[in-house]
Structures are given as C-alpha cells and as structure tokens.
Structures
1.
Amino acid sequence: MKITMLGTGHAGVTECYNTCFVLEDHGEKMLVDGGGGNILLRQLKRAGIELHEIGSIFVTHKHLDHITGIFWILRRIHQSAKRDPSFRKICIYSHADVISILKTGYKMLLLSEDEEPDDVAFVTVSDGEQLQILGDQFTFFDVGSKRVCQYGFKAETLQGISLVCLGDEYLQAGGLPYAQNCTWLMHEAFCAEAEKDLYRPHRMNHSTVKDACENAKSVNAENLILYHTEDQRINERKQLYGDEAALYFGRRCIIPDDLETIDL
Ligand SMILES: [Zn+2]
C-alpha cells in the first residue's frame, strides 16, 4: 500500500494545500478527502494521478477544508462521463451527513434539472461497517468528534499491515479499538508543543506534536504520520516536529510534505 499526500496543512494554510491524500494498492486508487478547492486538481496533476485512475473516494467530514475539493472532482467526473459514456463510475463513501451534502450539492450545482447523478455511486457507511476496497479490508468508524460527525477508517492488507486514519481529529474513544497495535497511525498535529501558546491548537480540538506522539504511544502504534499542520514552519517542520517526535514517540515518525509518497 502506498500513500501520496496531496496536502498536509490545516484549513487556513496558504503555503501548502489542505490535508488530503491518495491511497493505492493492487493497482487501484482511493482519494481520501478533497481539501478546500480547485487546487486539488493541480495537486493530482503534479502527483501524476489521472482522474480516471481514482475508483473511490472517502470523505471524513463536512468541514470546508475536506469536502469542497470533492465538488471539483464531481464536476470533472460529470464532464468526462458526458463525453465518454464508458467512463468508470466512481464510488464515494462517507457517513450520512456528508453523503447528503455531496448528493444535494452535486444536483444543485452541477446537474441540469432533468439530469440524475448516475455517474457517481454515493455509499453511506455506518459505524463499524466493513468493505473491501483496493483489495484490502476497510473498517469505517465514528472517531467521536465533539465538533461535527467525523469518520475515520482502518485499512488492513493481506500482508498484515494496518493503517488507521482519524481524519483531522485527535485519537478519542471511537478510534481507540481500531488504533490499538496498528502498523501505521495517521494523526493530526497542529504545531510543535513549544508553540502551543502561539497557535492554541487545543482551543480548536487539535493536538501538538507531543500530544499526537503520546496518543500513538498509548496504543502501541508502530509508525506515525503527522499531518494537518500549521504552515508558518513549513520549511522547518520536518526537523522541528521530527525532533519532538523522537522525544515523545521514539519510533518512526513521518512528517510528509505535500506530494510526498509513503510506502507502507
Ligand atoms: Zn481540517
């Protein structure tokens, strides 16, 4: 399994793109979240990923920095499907809130009155539901956000590698059973611990690098990926966050830049 990070920043960043990524396994690709806009199309292009290669999409929650980019994908899909009737139908997975917004938005913003959204399959997943995607087993779960309904997932490969994504929420009760002993944990980290008074991540229900590391350690995660960060330290964050992770996690911790790929 491979991850291509299309964006690594929080909602308000300007020096990188909002957090979203493409998962790839067995020659299939799934987009996870869309970031906040049309820059998603640029990031896909720069990553060398064609739209027709993406067979599925998962959206964690309805915040603008995660959902809005999906409308640009829907626009492209609709245009392509109109031109080429054999265009592969894309599957969008999420919980009921997000599916309702995407379906309504698709109809209202992109389709004419007599058109039906039949080039996209909108699939509502429930808490704990398991599905085979990319040839791997995905379990979707409610992360337990106090702000807005948000789902994460655990992907398990036949080789025994497990990847747990918590969206842009820190590890809470909803994610605990899934994150326990996982091979890879993707956890948000807004800023370095030393700069928490400057960025005040806890006010927004986000974590410092130290918090994320302690959470990863508490569930015995083997590897950690930190994302959804501030962007004022964009050039130093690998070093700065990496040093902090060495102190509080002590295992492999990756702080990816936009367009970086990670082989799991
Ligand atoms: Zn976010």
2.
Amino acid sequence: MERLAWGGLGLAHADDGRLLLLESPLALFPGETVEAEVHWKARHGEGRILRWIGKDGRRAPADCPVAGRCGGCELWEAGSCAPELKRQMVADLFHRQLGEVAWNWHPAPPEARRHRIQLHWDGAALGYHQRNSHVLVPVSACPAAAAPLSEALPRLQDALSGGALPARPQRWELATGTPAGEVTATDERGRTWRLAPDGWSRDEAPIVQQLPGGTLRHGPGAFFQVSPAWASRAFGSLLETWEVRGATLYDLYGGVGFFSALLGRRFAERVLVESGEAAVGWARLNLEALGLPAQCHAADVADWVPEALGHSDDLILLDPPRAGLPPDLCRKLQGAGAGAMVLVGCDGAAFCRDLKRLEPAWKLKALSALDLFPLTHHVECVALLAR
Ligand SMILES: C[S@@+](CC[C@H](N)C(=O)[O-])C[C@H]1O[C@@H](n2cnc3c(N)ncnc32)[C@H](O)[C@@H]1O
C-alpha cells in the first residue's frame, strides 16, 4: 500500500499502473502489504482489505475488542502515528481539490471522546453496524465514547432485552453533556429516557454543555458537536487567530447557538438561521442567557439568504450538514455584501467543492483542518474567505 487516501481508503497502483482503492477496517501505514478482494472497473480497482501480510512496526495494539469489525472507527492500531496518518490524508485531498494551498492541521488531544453515539438494536443485540453494511457488531463498551456512555451500554442492552425500554428494532442515540455525566437514550421517535441508578426513566430535560464560550442547553437527540469541549477549544483558538470580529455575525446553519456563543462577544449584533424549530428555540434561550441576544430565524438557509447579505464589516459563518451548500445558495452568496466569510464542513470533498463554487467572489485567506472525530477518517475543514 502506498498511503491512506481521502475517505479512509488505502491507495496503491497495480503493476499495469491502474489505481487501486481499498477499504481498510484499521489504520494503514505506507509500505504495508495486504491481501485484498478487488473488483476491477474500466480504469481502476476497488475492494477491501482482508488481512495484513506485512505490518509496519509502528502499529500499536487496539484498545477496543471489536476494532476492525465495527464500522464506528477505522484508525485503531495507528497508535501515536494517528495524527500524522490523518494529516497526510487531508493533505492529499486539499492538494487534489485545491492545488498548492497553505493549511494548518490541528490534531485531537488524547482525551477527546464522543459525547453522542448512535447504536442499533436488532431485537436481540445492541451495537454498531459494520462499515457500509447493516451487519450488527454487538458492543458492550466503546472506548471511543466518553466513559459514562460506554458504561451505559450494558444498562441499555439490559433494559431493551428486559422490556423496560421499547423492544422493537430501531436506532438509539446515547448522549451526555459537558462535563460528561448524566446519560440520555433517545429512540427514533425522539422519546428520551435518562439513566438513574435504579434504571431508565422518561425525561425530556435538556442536555447541558458547559463550554469555554458559555453554557448551552439543547434537547436530547438534537445536533450538537460530537466532542464538545475539544470542538469549542479548537474553533475558539482558530477563530481568535484569524481575528474574526465585526458588526453583524450571520450564523447560518446555527443549531442551538454554538458559534454565536463562541464568537458573539466580538460582534455588535448576531443573526442565527437554523431549520430545526426546537433548535432555534434553544438558541434564543441560550444566547439570551449569555447576554448575547440574537435574531433567531427558523428557516431554510437557502431560502432565507437575500441576494446581497450584509455589509463590508459583517461576517457570514456557514456550518452546513455533510452535503454542504446547495448550488443556488453559493450563487446568491457571490453577491453578498459581507466582507468576510467562514466556511465549516465535515465532509472534505463537499467543502472543497463549495470553496470552488464560491470563487471568484470569495478568495481563500486561511485554511485549517481540525481533528474533531479522532479514530475515524472524518475531519472538520474550516476556511476564512474574503471578498
Ligand atoms: C453541522 S450542524 C451545525 C450546527 C451548529 N453550527 C453547531 O455547531 O452546533 C448543521 C445544522 O444545520 C441545520 N440544517 C440542516 N439543513 C438546513 C437548512 N437547509 N437550513 C437551515 N438549517 C439547516 C441542522 O439542523 C443542524 O443544526
């Protein structure tokens, strides 16, 4: 294998020069030899690694009993090389998509853990799905999750098998606040139970996140940063370095106010747009409680954004879901009046596509990748743009 490429795929070339892309259930070091199942297409091959023949000496034992089978993480066994392997993967993406650009890499601290995990209950077992499959891998502990979530897994399994929680097969989300402590379980219908020493009880109380930018509350099952304290520190110091400030902050795809809380004091006014009505309600309450009142709109960003949004001392911050920005919104943003923009994207390929769509009106000023999702191939890309 030559290297880990974007998407967590192992990249190699066949003897005849054809490209080979292999799904890897574990970290992959350049130079390793593997046995793989390959399906050849017209110009390249795709497949998956079945086993390692020659391993890199830096490979470290995985701290997880289901490493390599569970689809939740792909970078177990990378050990202390994980930040560098991941940096090379992002470098590969930026180089191919954006050419020669300068960018900064922000590796995750070792203590970063997930505060939100999605599990599948098939009527008999609780676990994660294998990568690109619906095959269930039962789990009774998850070292990638915050300790209270991992410890709650057997309690959830018992409650589901014993009928104390709805037994029909479905997806469950386990979540905890910051600092990690109380655990909630939310089913597909949005019903929530809180874990107490004597079992699970129905409880719709919010999850509380005590972060450097201030305390935020949100409904269980709603979007929030997966690793909240690390995300808050990483974005906080990056946007401080970029000297992000101005008159009005347009926090688009604003959720419950994470960025408005983090940056709000550096702007005279704040406008938040988010499609989830419940999230908008929480954003309004959160920002008022922090003394940062904002105009909060429950709307589709693409519909809400006018043709010439903002003035030269305003900032537009966009943090869309994985699919990125709709083409029509990129077109409208070409004519925006704001002087600066921050684009955040958790899918690097969609993020690079959107940067290109925003040109030529918006020029790239600074680019970073934050490892907000350690042990996986996912990263958060962040760009500062100016007109
Ligand atoms: C990646 S999350 C970011 C949330 C927030 N910025 C944060 O950091 O917590 C994307 C958010 O966009 C919202 N969303 C999805 N599609 C939307 C749309 N078309 N218009 C407005 N908001 C949308 C989701 O509900 C979610 O809260």
